Amino acid sequence: MIAVAAPSVASLVQSVDWVAIAPPTIAAAVALVVLVADLFLDERRKPVLGRLSVAGLAAAALALIPLISDADDGRSTFCLTNTSYDACSYTADRFTLVIQFLVLAGALLTALLSISTLKDAKNANKPLPEGEFWFLLLSSAAGAALLPASRDLATLVVALEVASLPAFALVGLKRDDKRSSDAALKFFLSSVTATAVMLLGVSFVYATTGSLHLTRIASELTHVDGQFHTLAQAGVALTLVGFAFKTAAVPFHFWVPDTYVGAPLPIAAYLSVIGKAVGFSGLILVTVVAFPSYADVWGPALAALAALTMTAGNVAALRQQATRAYSAVRLLAWSSVGQAGYLLVPIAAAAYSDDPQKSIGSTLAYALMYAAVNLGAFTVAALVARTKPLNRLSDYRGLYASRPLAALALGFFLLCLAGLPPGIIGLFAKVTVFSAAVDAGLGWLAVVMAVNVVIALFYYLQWTATLFRTPEGEPAAYRASMPLTAAIAATAAVGVALSGAPQLILHFVESGLFS
Question: What contacts 48, CB < 8 A, 6 or more positions away?
Fold first, then answer.
């Protein structure tokens, strides 16, 4: 009989860096406070929960500030001890901080939009359950903030599901709306299928490497036994499926338009930005950190997905009819699919680049630009929806006559998405992504991207022109609110500031992303 030494108690006890884990922890803690407080508040005092949620998300975002000074070296916690290699499950490095800022700032803007939406629903005698809404939003934001810091596949999958499961419920929260129920069911079933496939891939990777830590997996995959090589390839490919679904990459994109239309508008905005941030951060971690030695597997696959995704999204957006109900939301939905294609380009380029972190920096720079201006477009859409709930593209005709500042803001956001001046940040981001493809030798993908940018110009400019046309009849009176106005002003200010100094973003995200 072979005696096996039991691990010492000291080796099982890990110190926790509470400063490093503060951002997702604060969001999760406030979610629990909201859940409990909801039990004791009557209906008249439920708006307090919204203000508490906004304060909690702001506090979580501010908790990133103490971590900036350590961004280059990173702060790690939940690490293995007494082993032959160092591996940690949570790392707050530059990559983590960028994505967490995007997630928490985006969730904060979503919360501001939601305050007006919940109030309007109550006034229309179609109230949404406020306690459940705020709890689910905060829980999803906590999971989304945890994911970019995850450095093992188990934590990565858990964070992905914590971010996703509340989103299913949020989409279906309009209980008296059939579209909402259908959207939630479609979103749930397709996501569960993708997650099941991803978990199968994770199990294959674990079987071939014997570890779940990303850095250890990267090391073990370099010398996999020949008999397990096919199993490892299958594991890599299947693991990517779950994250490809979250990024709305073709052919995993079919849930997007119906889900955006059926969900409350702030949740559609949340999914378009934070949902994508979750998918792309997970995709970057598993490809660049865990599977660099299998770049010949995921590189061509992501390049093909990028080309298909941007083409399908832009062509579908181009076909939207101005008088169709919810055509504005559908256009933003299909546009987000096209934008996902652009975001995939630098990740694919990382497989062929001598400096993968520079390519990933291009994706992060583009993601920050996209988050600001796309949330801005949704804030103006929320303003229009308060008067014209069908949210057709034709409803935006003459917006400048009644709400000139809102029209100018939306026009600016659309020009940023199109990559035209004065939306300099959009142009800068597209050039950065284009350069990443060219530098990696993916000339054909750069050509496909250029063609899609031209296609997108048509529908973005068409919508922009509609804002300044003469209205039919008397200009509509659009009802603004303080939170909605604050959201529009904040996104416009960020867009203008980034257009004035776009190089600062790229410099920050390209300087040693991973510790």
Answer: 37, 41
Cβ neighbours of residue 512 under 8 Å, at least 6 residues apart? 72, 93, 94, 357
| C-alpha of 3 from chain center | 50
Burial code (b: 16+ CB inside 10 Å, e: under 16) for 53-67 equals: bbebbebbbebbeeb
User: 102-134: buried (b, 16+ CB within 10 Å) or exposed (e) per residue?
Assistant: bbbbbbbbbbbbbbbbbbbbeeeeebbebbbbb
Instruction: Give the model confidence (pLDDT) of 23-76 as tens digits.
Output: 999 999 999 999 999 888 888 888 899 999 999 999 999 999 998 887 777 788
DSSP secondary structure code for residue 67 in this structure: G
Q: Token pair for residue 464?
A: 């922009």
Neighbours of 325 (CB within 10 A): 13
Separation of alpha carbons 211 and 85, rounded Å = 11
CA gyration radius for the chain? 23
Upper half-sphere CA count for residue 346 (Cβ side, 13 Å): 27
For the entire predicted model, the pTM comes to 0.91
Q: What does the alpha-carbon distance between residue 328 and residue 336 come to, in Å, rounded to a whole number?
A: 12
> What is the distance between the alpha carbons of residues 491 and 487, in angstroms, rounded to a whole number?
6
